[in-house]
Specification:
Blueprint (H helix, E strand, L loop, with lengths): L5 E2 L2 H7 L12 E9 L9 H5 L7 E6 L10 E5 L2 E5 L6 H8 L3 E12 L2 E11 L1
Antiparallel strand pairs: 1-2, 2-7, 3-4, 3-6, 4-5, 6-7
């Protein structure tokens, strides 16, 4: 499935909250781009509480943060209203440029594990076209 184009369901379209041409109800497809380990989870003060609600298949919003003091190409992952981390810096350049050009993205959690004090969350990143 990761290498196929597929239609988006209504819940995902609501998550993306698109407007413009997309408000016409034109069909959308999700395009698999990459798999990541969410970076920076250990810097989220309440990550254990947030992670207790995250399961395989949970959807993550992706928010571009061009004014991030550490990385001008930063893209944050949000679960509901909580930031849980970022796309790793070495993998965010192309996605950030596409986001800056108006492309829409989201991520789907593929796994979650706890190693000592670290919550490891893995996700697949998709572009919506």
């Amino acid at each position: 499935m990761a290498n196929e184009l597929s239609r988006l369901d209504d819940n995902l379209v609501a998550l993306l909250a698109t407007g413009g041409v997309n408000s016409l109800g034109l069909p959308k497809q999700k395009i698999y781009l990459l798999s990541v380990v969410v970076a920076g989870t250990s810097f989220v003060p309440n990550i254990e509480e947030i992670a207790s609600h995250i399961d395989k298949g949970s959807l993550l919003r992706m928010v571009r943060q061009p004014k991030n003091e550490y990385d001008e190409y930063a893209i944050a992952f949000f679960y509901e209203q909580d930031r849980i981390g970022y796309i790793p810096e070495m993998m965010n350049l192309v996605v950030s440029r596409l986001m800056d050009a108006g492309k829409e993205f989201y991520a789907e959690v593929t796994g979650k594990a706890k190693y000592n004090n670290w919550i490891k969350i893995t996700a697949d990143v998709f572009m919506v076209e």
